[in-house]
Automatic annotation (TrEMBL), chain A:
One of its GO terms (molecular function) is transmembrane transporter activity. Its main location: membrane. The keyword Transmembrane applies. It is found in: Cell membrane. It is a multi-pass membrane protein. This is Branched-chain amino acid ABC transporter permease. It comes from the Bacteria. Keywords: Amino-acid transport, Cell membrane, Membrane, Transmembrane, Transmembrane helix, Transport. One of its GO terms (cellular component) is plasma membrane. InterPro entries: ABC_transp_permease (IPR001851), BCAA_transport_permease (IPR052157). The keyword Membrane applies. It holds the Pfam family BPD_transp_2. One of its GO terms (biological process) is amino acid transport. It comes from Bradyrhizobium centrolobii.
UniProtKB/TrEMBL annotation, chain B:
The keyword Signal applies. The keyword Transmembrane does not apply. Residues 1-20 form the signal peptide. It holds the Pfam family Peripla_BP_6. Belongs to the leucine-binding protein family. InterPro entries: BCAA_transport (IPR051010), Leu-bd (IPR028081), Peripla_BP_I (IPR028082). Residues 30-380 form the Leucine-binding protein domain. The lineage of its organism: Bacteria, Pseudomonadati, Pseudomonadota, Alphaproteobacteria, Hyphomicrobiales. This is Branched-chain amino acid ABC transporter substrate-binding protein. Keywords: Amino-acid transport, Signal, Transport. One of its GO terms (biological process) is amino acid transport. It comes from Bradyrhizobium centrolobii. It comes from the Bacteria.
From TrEMBL, chain C:
GO terms for cellular component: plasma membrane. It is found in: Cell membrane. Coiled coil: none annotated. It is a multi-pass membrane protein. It comes from Bradyrhizobium centrolobii. This is Branched-chain amino acid ABC transporter permease. One of its GO terms (molecular function) is branched-chain amino acid transmembrane transporter activity. It comes from the Bacteria. Pfam families: BPD_transp_2.
Length: 287, 417, 323
């Protein structure tokens, strides 16, 4: 294997970890509440803007920006849950698409109104540039995002499988009425799920902002990737999203390098469709 | 009940339209419809264009004797129409050809504009100018580069900007000059996105180099608004071309700069084709790691006190941004259009059309570095031209080629960061 | 009887509209409402009646649009001649896509259709024969009446009205046939429908193909009216979403739901853009987005479900939710 190919694969893995990072929040609400959130990409975008504001107003880096973005987005998640999601959840799937698509436009263009349409960017040296390991060049900001992606996945998985809060949340996801009879309040659990999901998404945005450009429409670019990652991984499966993200990252990198960048998304979509043909519930989803 | 909703809404629509139509043009105001992308992914272009045209209106509507030979600047308003003021009516094309056409129709039939100006994206210029053509209203385009726009046999369509064939020639000549000075420019790679702009410009450039007997060595296409460009940079790093010609919008231009730094790749010569590399956001975001990038432009600021420097200052006050080539071409186009209306002495479409056809502006009457403005039968400005600028310090572009217009000598090789 | 009365009033208003509000922009607005109503009604067959939420319908829209423009650009024919080609192409493609994807449940079907649509957009973007990213243009100057390139929107308006009437008739006929009965059963519970002997797969596939064919007609008409199609405007995912939210907003699974949705959203979009778009602050979409959110929040079954429930309480199971 040529050396360049190794760099391509490493780059793909880092890219995939980022995909996994901004998809974990989506898969959580999708799996738990059967809600498809068309505004997910715009949550990522908001996280990026929070990080940017933290940087420009306070000169803070990711140490300050990332937790703040998590906090702000988690709050927004709770507001969105009680203001919109709680009601459209009871409606048909179409109402969810309608509501979250409207929300996406509302968020995107509120930011647009406030910040304007110019492309923004964080300074290069905010997360320590690039370092070389055995000739492989790795961006510190991407590595940070990748490591956090692993931590978030692991943390969410532990939360869902090892804590009582997680069991309660899963109980509500399984059967809200039965859970209520057991003394669990579905509203609270679901609001917590939204806070966690939106918080994780905000965190993702803040970390991506360190190596990507920031613009109100950036969520559009990211949303479709997140959708494919989540369905490939299986709705609701956090580890599934990680594996799917890494897989998509590597496939994109390799096909972009070997076949041509304009075909890399075609390769991903076609493989995704083939995969659904054989395993309609995704990588790690339940039937 | 359905009906109540529908009719209610339609009534509201009707009322709004009636109101709009009620405010009919006063005799003293010349309305010009301006269609630009003001939302969506290219909205920053529309915001900059709006500021530029507001500056242009200030120059036209108020006396600005300090601007020398620039037509319309000396006195307030349009002398040819008894001092009438110009009013631009802005419309958002939303980056959508259908919306652009709907807005052109609205501007022509509801606002009764004397002419239409727009629309940035070639596809939208195509659909919106088709409406102007059907209504017989002059349409001036100042920045769309698709060749087919002036090949449709339209009688009301005029374009002031240089197009791909013009700047392909600039690149060929510029690189030949660099070679004559001892630079290595044999192995040229073209990197472009897969939009209509990227593909058509890349094809034209490839054809021009082929004609010159120096075929393009490497053609790298990538999808617009890419999430990752590592593969493309590695490909270039692998093939080591002497010159890279970059055809990218702002988003990808920023990502390319960041990826090239992280993978430690510097081509000997990096030559950009306007667009993203001219966006002030690009310079703010990654200018410091793109030092020495060449760029094509028709805009170069003159010494302080010169008309172009004054205009650049006015624009900066208005928008907070540095003037760049794209807004410069838009402002210039607007001046050409209004100058024709002034010379026509009327907003009668046929007279404006005749005046546009008779346009013959000299370089000293322009704010841009064109050799002049003169339209051929198809409506294309035959005197449009450009120069090469370089981002030597990472903050401001300076003109470096051709020698006659150069403020500094080209700096080689590409420095990066 | 009441229904018939309403129907004739709606028809009368539809016929009289462009004569009463006769400015070119108002007429065009009317034509656009009808055009989107055709597309949304076509989507309604599979999305509303069968409950299969396709987010990739733009593929079929694009088939029609490209067939119409292709007929002109490649063969010098009137774009009209592209319509049958578009229908065949769309129905055939629907069969190819439908067989593997329609067995997917719920969200997986939606995601698969998104993937198909994006794949098609990318393929066309990279296909020189189809104009790649530059797109295909229609006749710039009409050669004869069959080029369907008019200055006024009036001919488009009545053409679209006739085609919308046909689309709604087909939908109505289908909904009241055995197929409609099967579809409603499948929408309620596919497993129950299968166990009762309803040919679920075949019925869904037929609905998908019918919906695709009608959507392609809308795409062809769209391209003819604007004289242009490119990958973004003919195959962009946003068009799918737009069609879908029109149906959802008016009331999916209801005959007149898509028309109501189009009659609200199209003027809302065009007029708010005319008022606010020029300010360049993105306010158009703040308003547009907020209104959609409010409707989804307070009327999740679509506008029409409000009246439906009032007329007949406790019937609309598909769209219903506790108040």
């Amino acid at each position: 294997m040529s050396f360049v190919l190794v760099q391509v694969i490493v780059g793909g893995l880092l890219l995939g970890a980022v995909y996994a990072l901004f998809s974990s929040g989506l898969t959580l609400v999708w799996g738990m509440m059967n809600i498809v959130n068309f505004a997910h990409g715009d949550f990522v975008m908001l996280g990026m803007y929070v990080a940017y504001v933290v940087y420009t107003l306070m000169g803070g880096g990711p140490i300050l920006g990332a937790p703040l973005a998590t906090l702000v987005l988690a709050t927004l998640g709770v507001i969105v849950y009680f203001g919109l999601i709680r009601d459209i959840m009871k409606g048909p799937m179409l109402a969810q698409i309608l509501g979250t698509f409207g929300l996406a436009l509302l968020l995107r263009y509120s930011v647009f109104w406030w910040f304007g349409a110019n492309f923004l960017s964080m300074p290069q040296d905010i997360v320590g540039g690039t370092f070389a390991v055995a000739g492989l060049r790795i961006e510190a900001s991407r590595l940070l995002a990748g490591v956090v992606a692993l931590l978030v996945t692991f943390g969410l998985h532990l939360l869902l499988t090892r804590t009582s809060l997680g069991s309660k949340m899963l109980a509500v996801a399984e059967d809200a009425t039965a859970a209520q009879l057991m003394g669990i309040r579905p509203d609270t659990m679901q609001a917590i799920a939204w806070a966690i999901a939106a918080g994780a998404t905000g965190l993702a945005g803040a970390l991506i902002a360190n190596f990507f450009y920031i613009v109100p429409t950036v969520g559009e670019t990211l949303a479709i990737v997140a959708f494919v990652t989540v369905s490939l991984g299986g709705f609701g499966s956090v580890p599934g999203a990680l594996v799917a993200g890494l897989l998509i990252g590597v496939i994109e990198s390799l096909s972009g390098y070997l076949i041509g960048a304009v075909y890399k998304d075609i390769v991903v979509y076609v493989l995704f469709l083939f995969f659904l043909w054989f395993r309609p519930q995704g990588l790690m989803g339940k039937m | 009940m359905t009906l109540k909703h529908v009719t209610g809404l339609l009534c509201a629509a009707a009322m709004s339209l009636a109101l709009a139509a009620g405010a009919r043009a006063e005799d003293k105001v010349v309305k010009i419809g301006v269609i630009m992308p003001m939302s969506g992914g290219t909205a920053s272009i529309g915001a900059h264009a709006k500021a530029a045209i507001e500056v242009a209106m200030d120059i036209i509507n108020n006396a600005h004797p300090e601007l020398g030979n620039l037509p319309l600047a000396k006195n307030a308003g349009l002398a040819g129409l008894g001092g009438a003021k110009v009013e631009a009516i802005f419309a958002d094309n939303q980056g959508n050809p259908a919306t652009g056409q709907n807005q052109a129709l609205r501007l022509i039939t509801e606002d009764k504009v004397a002419a239409v100006f727009g629309a940035y994206q070639s596809g939208i210029t195509l659909t919106s100018s088709a409406i102007a053509e059907k209504y017989g209203i002059p349409y001036l385009n100042s920045e769309s580069v698709a060749a087919n726009l002036t090949e449709r046999g339209f009688k009301w369509f005029f374009r002031t900007t240089p197009i791909a064939t013009d700047f392909a020639k600039i690149y060929v000549d510029f690189l030949a000059d660099l070679k004559a000075q001892g630079g290595k420019t044999d192995n040229v790679a073209v990197v472009h996105d897969n939009t209509e702009y990227g593909t058509s410009v890349a094809n034209t450039i490839s054809a021009a180099f082929k004609e010159k007997g120096q075929p393009i060595a490497l053609d790298v296409a990538y999808p617009v608004n890419a999430t990752d460009l590592q593969g493309q940079v590695l490909q270039l790093k692998d093939k080591k071309p002497d010159v890279i010609i970059m055809i990218s919008y702002t988003s990808d231009a920023i990502l390319f700069a960041k990826t090239m730094q992280s993978l430690d790749y510097k081509p000997p010569v990096l030559l950009a084709d306007d667009a993203g590399y001219s966006d002030p956001s690009f310079i703010k975001a990654v200018g410091k790691i793109s030092q020495g990038v060449f760029n094509r432009s028709s805009w170069a600021v003159g010494p302080s006190g010169s008309p172009s420097a004054i205009i650049a200052d006015m624009y900066k006050k208005k928008s907070g941004e540095e003037m760049d080539d794209t807004v410069g071409r838009q402002m210039q186009g607007f001046f050409v259009l209004v100058d024709a209306i002034d010379r026509a002495g009327s907003t009668d479409p046929a007279k404006v059309q005749a005046a546009l056809k008779a346009t013959d502006l000299k370089p000293d009457q322009l704010m841009m570095g064109y050799k002049g403005v003169k339209f051929d039968d198809k409506g294309q400005n035959v005197l449009a031209s450009g120069l090469i600028i370089q981002l030597q310090d990472g903050e401001n572009y300076v003109a470096v080629w051709p020698k006659a217009n150069a403020a500094k000598a080209p700096m080689l090789p590409y420095k990066g960061w | 009887m009441r229904r018939l009365l309403w129907l004739s009033v709606v028809a009368a208003v539809a016929i009289a509209y462009p004569l009463l509000l006769s400015s070119p922009f108002q007429q065009r607005l009317g034509a656009l409402v009808l055009l989107y109503a055709i597309a949304a009604s076509a989507w309604n067959i599979v999305g509303g009646y069968a409950g299969q939420i396709s987010v990739g319908h733009v593929v079929f829209f694009g088939c029609g649009a490209y067939a119409a423009m292709g007929a002109y650009a490649k063969f010098g024919l009137s774009p009209l001649f592209g319509i049958p080609g578009g229908i065949v192409l769309a129905a055939g493609l629907a069969a190819v896509i439908g067989v593997p994807t329609l067995r997917l449940s719920g969200h997986y079907f939606s995601m698969a259709t998104i993937a198909v649509a994006e794949t098609m957009r990318l393929i066309v973007t990279n296909t020189d024969y189809l104009g790649a990213a530059v797109g295909l243009s229609g006749p710039t100057v009409p050669r004869n009446i069959f080029d369907l390139s008019f200055l006024s929107s009036l001919p488009y308006y009545y053409l679209f009205l006739v085609i919308l009437a046909i689309t709604l008739l087909i939908t109505w006929w289908m909904a009241n046939s055995r197929m409609g009965f099967y579809l409603r059963a499948i929408k309620d519970s596919e497993r129950a429908a299968r166990s009762l002997g309803a040919p679920a797969s075949r019925t869904k596939l037929y609905a998908f193909m019918l919906s695709a064919a009608l959507t392609s007609v809308a795409g062809a008409l769209y391209a003819m009216m604007f004289g242009f199609v490119d990958p973004e405007s003919g195959l962009g995912i946003l068009i799918s979403v737009k069609i879908l939210i029109m149906a959802a907003l008016g009331g999916a699974g209801l005959l007149f739901g898509p028309l109501v949705g189009a009659a609200i959203l199209v003027p809302l979009e065009e007029i708010s853009n005319s008022w606010l778009g020029g300010k360049g602050a993105g306010l158009t979409f703040v308003v547009y987005g907020a209104i959609i959110v409010l409707i989804a929040r307070f009327q999740p079954g679509g506008i029409l479900s409000l009246f439906k429930r009032r007329a007949k309480p406790n019937v609309d199971k598909g769209a219903g939710h506790a108040p």
